[in-house]
Amino acid sequence: MPVVLENLGKRFGDGAPVLDDVNANIAQGEFVALLGASGCGKSTLLNIMAGLELPTSGALEVPSDGAAFMFQDAALFPWLTARENIELALKLRGVGKADRRTKANELLDLVHLGGAGDKRPHELSGGMRQRVSLARSLAQDRQLLLMDEPFAALDAITRDLLHDELERIWKETGRTIVFVTHNVREAVRLGQRVLLLSSRPGRVVQEWNVTEEHRTDAGLAGQLTGVITARLREEIRRHAK
Amino acid sequence: MPSNTTPLAEAPAPGEASGASSDASSAEKVHAALTRSSTGNEDLRELESGLDSLQSDAARAVRIDWSRILLPVAALVVLILAWQFYVSLGLKRRDLVPGPLDVLGQFGTLWAEGSLQEAVWTSLQRGLVGFLISVAIATPIGLLLAQVAPLRRAFGPLISGLQVLPSVAWVPAAIIWFGLTDATVYFVVFMGAIPSIINGLISGVDQIPPQYRSVGTVLGASRLQMAVQIILPAALPGYLSGLKQGWAFSWRSLMAAEIIAVGGTIGFGLGSMLNQGRDLADMTVVMSAILLILAVGILIELLVFAPIEKRLLRRRGLLAGSTR
Ligand SMILES: Nc1ncnc2c1ncn2[C@@H]1O[C@H](COP(=O)(O)OP(=O)(O)OP(=O)(O)O)[C@@H](O)[C@H]1O
Ligand SMILES: [Mg+2]
To answer: pLDDT tens digits for B80-112?
Structure first.
């Protein structure tokens, strides 16, 4: 198990706990969608897994070499070209100068951006930036890839394509992916397993398996989406006054 | 597998229909596809490259924009004509308000004497040397203050305060300490330039989006790599505006020092020329000196800082929409 979360809790200062008693196991090579309403602590949980923040209680097990991370906005460095952004990740990982360029070009090809390596981030469209960002997180070469609403800011057409793209890359590279989203459809489209996080405090309250049939049968997928949406709304309604 | 290719526009969701509210489903018109929407790698590649070319700008040709040159020149001509017009009205004595031609004549005389070249060269040299030394001193201090919180808390207010203090206030102290030597002039320049460069660098570092540091951490950067590969380049725009202000402060401080501290081993600079004009009560010399001081400032801005800044901002996509 590359990721094990045990009774994980997090509170900021002395406010109410954001996460409380989170339990989850994620298997090698699995694609898990972490679903929850806005502000329920998804990013916090992901940051804890990435080592950017420390939990206040509980224990977690992540791969010893850490995790690759993909942010909501591409978070590319504007003073570097697309290729240089990827090369920087390789450099900080300790890849020698000679290999960096070839490696970066391979990764750009993988995300279908072979021709855009010399462009700067501001010259790329939102979808292209996210693909560069994906390539950069793949450059980290970590088994575990954490993604924090990476496609939330994109238009629907681009997002559909990037879903296909991500599924393809996941299959090609065999990564373990934890994908955070507040979009039920996106969770059903991508995850093999959908974990629902409750709000205040955040806790895994239910999970669903998404099978290969759901990938091709729109009716089946729609039905599952409906079920999960209903459960999510129930969770949100609990907080109504 | 053609059946896969139909994205589900509006999923009939039994859960939604049976119970809950209808708010969210009606608010969001366009839904993501629930199933695969492309038929394979080749199809995906094609679709993506189509979108990419639709969504990114076509390369724009870079042309010389003549209005950038002609408009300032026109403005200058208008100002000089207005000046000449005012003088020719004869409201004031000619020796109190000389016309453009009188000043031009004085320029010629000063040039022939060689004192114009000497003054410009002496001042420019001092200004640049003083500025460069200031940069070398201020940059490490600024980085240190920006990165080490206790130091920043301790010295931050002092540095900001120094920026407010007119550096001309240091002239008497400098003359007492260093006498009428170049050291006096440089000291005053340092006291003017160093605080503003430090402040520029600190605010440049402060304005770095916190996410850049997170990215650095996630990518596994060490402390040094973080400072050199991420913090410094990210802070460059703020640092550059600090440098610009630092130069302006150097130049002003230098003029102040040269006007007040005259004689001794201090050479003849533009400030000294200004002072000389006052002593001789020769308004044409005074105006020549003022115009030269202004011209040097404008030229350094146009020839050194503007191109660097423009290049920096354009590479980062920060120029669009500005009126530069
Ligand atoms: N550094 C922090 N200090 C204090 N409170 C924080 C901090 N970071 C997050 N929080 C709080 O924790 C809660 C969860 O935040 P988090 O960003 O993890 O939510 P999220 O599920 O990712 O939301 P979104 O869908 O908006 O991204 C929020 O109420 C937020 O105000
Ligand atoms: Mg979030």
So the answer is: 999 989 888 888 787 788 888 888 998 899 899
Give the whole-angstrom CA distance, residue A121 versus residue A189. Answer: 28
Asked if the Cβ–Cβ distance from B218 to A68 is below 8 Å, we say yes
Complete domains list, chain A, with CATH: 3-67+142-237 (3.40.50.300), 76-141 (no CATH)
- Which of the residues B34, B223, B316 would you substitute to probe the A interface, choosing the one with the greatest number of A C-beta atoms within 10 Å? B34
Q: Find, among B167, B103, B156, B110, the residue nearest to B134 by Cα.
A: B167
| Ligand nearest to the CA of residue A147, numbered in listed order | 2
Output DSSP code: residue A200. S
Are the beta carbons of B34 and B9 closer than 8 angstroms?
Answer: no
Q: Indicate whether this model's pTM tops 0.95.
A: no
Helix, strand, coil content of chain A in percent (nearest 5)? 45, 20, 35
- The owner of tokens 């049968």 is A217
Q: Which amino acid is at B231?
A: I
CA of A180 to the centre of ligand 2 (A): 8
Compute the CA torsion angle A47, A49, A54, A55 (nearest 10 deg): 110
Residues in Cβ contact with B156 at an 8 Å cutoff, skipping those fewer than 6 apart: B145, B202
Of A67, A188, A199, A180, give the one whose Cα is nearest residue B36. A188
Question: A184 near A153, Cβ under 8 Å?
Answer: no
| B104-315 topology per CATH | MetI-like fold (1.10.3720)
Residues 94-113 of B with CB under 8 A from A: none
Locate B173 and state its tokens.
């102290």
ipTM: 0.84
Strand order in A204-209's β-sheet?
A: A68-70, A144-148, A176-181, A31-36, A193-197, A204-209
